[in-house]
Write a structure and sequence with these properties.
It is a single chain. By secondary structure, the protein is mainly alpha-helical. Helices cover about 80% and strands about 0% of the residues. The chain has seven helices and no strands. It has helices at about 10-15, 20-30, 30-40, 50-70, 75-95, 100-125, 130-150. It is globular, with a radius of gyration of 16 Å. The termini are far apart.
């Protein structure tokens, strides 16, 4: 049974800290004074869809490395399958996160959902910590909800 309470506190805290740029991107899309303040203080890379898409691409590639680490400890078919699957998120980001904010956000959502499927595969193969999915499911949910904002924006 997956229980969020079983996730080590450090993993929980760092995982949710990693959501801050996603929240920031959404806030700067919804709160005009915050967008203006950020634009004046640090420039356009840190507002709205720009921060969401750039950071989302970075995290999707980062997840490839995390998955590679899990797969590398496997043996036989699970290692081959896990290693092959672990490179897919980074390649997905490279090839498909293109175009305007809407299509790029949709591609990132698909990428993060794909990572969750790979997480499930590696978790079922017992290559991840037992608490892994209890952390990954809420993180992926929040990331996809944040990316839905530019994906659905007119």
């Amino acid at each position: 049974m997956l229980r969020f309470a079983d996730v080590p506190p450090a993993a929980r805290a760092l995982g949710f800290a990693g959501l801050l740029p996603f929240f920031w991107g959404v806030l700067t899309m919804w709160v005009q004074p915050l967008e203006t303040l950020t634009l004046d203080a640090v420039g356009p890379r840190f507002i709205g869809p720009y921060v969401l898409l750039n950071y989302g691409t970075i995290i999707l590639a980062f997840m490839s490395g995390v998955l590679w680490g899990f797969a590398a400890s496997a043996q036989g078919w699970a290692r081959v399958a896990g290693l092959a699957l672990s490179v897919v998120p980074a390649l997905w980001a490279f090839f498909f996160v293109t175009g305007g904010p809407g299509p790029a956000a949709i591609a990132l959502i698909a990428g993060f959902l794909g990572v969750l499927l790979i997480d499930i595969f590696l978790w079922q193969a017992r290559l991840t910590p037992p608490w892994w999915l209890a952390l990954r499911i809420p993180l992926t949910t929040v990331v996809c909800l944040c990316l839905a904002v530019p994906a659905l924006a007119p």
